[in-house]
């Protein structure tokens, strides 16, 4: 069923309301935390008069509602503030960090979707057999395992005990200098392909393996469980059994009839899991020193960098709402039974 303009308008309005609500709540929380963020602006060795001047410049000496007024006035003019840690505009820091996170999360989501659907179908076809039980147990473990624990374990095993994979960073700085690599889009895979810089491409891919495996576990487990349950249900349908009796090839039956019933709910569930994956990305990027949005917000939290914290959280809320909107549109396009 086509998506109406009224539905789109409502969802876009809801997107702005969610972002605004997240902004207000985050602002209040950052202001009630006992800290002295003005020291980040002037330095810990600043004199008392410099600290006091910094408090006035940053409006920290004002009541919280006045601080909120100043922040919102700047925010709606497109000025998200200046990071007290990097001394760069927050929006510029976010735009610079975003490609790294997108490269990581998109890769993890694509792999989780492809592998999850294949394993889920294999489990459904072999329902009740040993392979079904093994895949089911693996899906439960994958969906339940904490990303920070898995990331530390993988880093310890494959980067410290058996150093076969890099344990951090996005690319080797010495390799960047040696090969003359220059980021164009900040998507390093794309940039290295554009410049035909294969040593950098190989290094970037190697450094993505551990964080991608860590990040993909939850959506992978969710995809396997959703695909398995939906495929088992579809295989029990009368028309599917009739097609099997009539001699329709198993591969064609799975592709043309079973898979179509599975894809839509799996995509919807992946969209809903995106928020968890973004939260996981924060911890994964901190563990692997991967300079994306998660690492940026994590460092801002550790240093009480209010503008960076607020900008990062609001940006993630907007992205999360947009992803859910896109997922709903794709869901409606795939499954005509969905109504808006």
Notable features of this structure?
15 helices; MetI-like fold; 340 residues; mainly alpha
Report on the structure:
The structure is a single chain. This protein is an all-alpha fold and 340 residues long. It has a domain at 100-303: MetI-like fold. It contains 15 helices and no strands. The protein has helices at residues 5-32, 38-42, 48-57, 64-75, 90-125, 130-144, 147-161, 173-179, 188-194, 198-235, 238-245, 250-272, 274-287, 293-302, 306-334. α1 (5-32) runs antiparallel to α15 (306-334).
List the SSEs and their pairings.
Elements (H helix, E strand, L loop, with lengths): L4 H28 L5 H5 L5 H10 L6 H12 L14 H36 L4 H15 L2 H15 L11 H7 L8 H7 L3 H38 L2 H8 L4 H23 L1 H14 L5 H10 L3 H29 L6
Mean pLDDT score? 83
Secondary-structure element series: HHHHHHHHHHHHHHH
Helix content percent band: over 70%
What's the CATH C level of the domain at 100-303?
Mainly Alpha
Given the helix and strand composition, which structural class is it?
mainly alpha
Q: What integer value in Å does the Rg equal?
A: 24 Å
Summarize it:
The chain is an all-alpha fold and 340 residues long.
């Amino acid at each position: 069923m086509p998506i109406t303009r009224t539905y789109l308008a409502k969802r876009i309005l809801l997107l702005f309301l969610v972002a605004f609500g997240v902004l207000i709540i985050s602002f209040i929380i950052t202001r009630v935390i006992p800290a002295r963020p003005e020291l980040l602006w002037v330095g810990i060795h600043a004199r008392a008069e410099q600290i006091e001047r910094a408090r006035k410049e940053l409006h920290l000496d004002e009541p919280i509602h006045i601080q909120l007024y100043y922040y919102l006035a700047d925010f709606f003019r497109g000025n998200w503030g200046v990071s007290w840690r990097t001394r760069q505009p927050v929006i510029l820091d976010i735009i610079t960090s975003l490609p790294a996170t997108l490269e990581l999360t998109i890769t993890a989501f694509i792999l989780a979707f492809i592998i999850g659907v294949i394993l889920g179908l294999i489990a459904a076809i072999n329902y009740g057999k040993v392979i079904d039980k093994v895949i089911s147990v693996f899906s439960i473990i994958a969906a339940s395992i904490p990303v920070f624990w898995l990331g530390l374990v993988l880093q310890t095993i494959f980067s410290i005990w058996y150093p076969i994979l890099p344990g951090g960073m996005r690319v080797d700085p010495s390799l960047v200098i040696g090969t003359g690599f220059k980021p164009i889009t900040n998507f390093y895979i794309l940039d290295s392909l554009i410049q035909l810089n294969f040593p950098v491409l190989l290094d970037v891919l190697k450094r993505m393996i551990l964080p991608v495996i860590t990040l993909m576990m939850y959506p992978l487990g969710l995809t396997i469980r959703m695909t398995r349950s939906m495929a088992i249900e579809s295989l029990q349908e009368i028309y599917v059994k009739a097609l099997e009796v009539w001699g329709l090839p198993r591969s064609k039956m799975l592709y043309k009839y079973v898979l179509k019933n599975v894809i839509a709910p799996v995509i919807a569930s992946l969209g809903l899991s995106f928020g968890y994956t973004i939260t996981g990305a924060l911890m994964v990027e901190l563990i692997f020193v991967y300079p994306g949005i998660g690492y940026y917000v994590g460092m801002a939290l550790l240093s009480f960098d209010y503008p960076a914290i607020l900008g990062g959280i609001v940006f993630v809320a907007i992205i999360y709402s947009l992803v859910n909107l896109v997922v709903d549109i794709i869901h409606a396009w795939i499954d005509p039974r969905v109504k808006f």
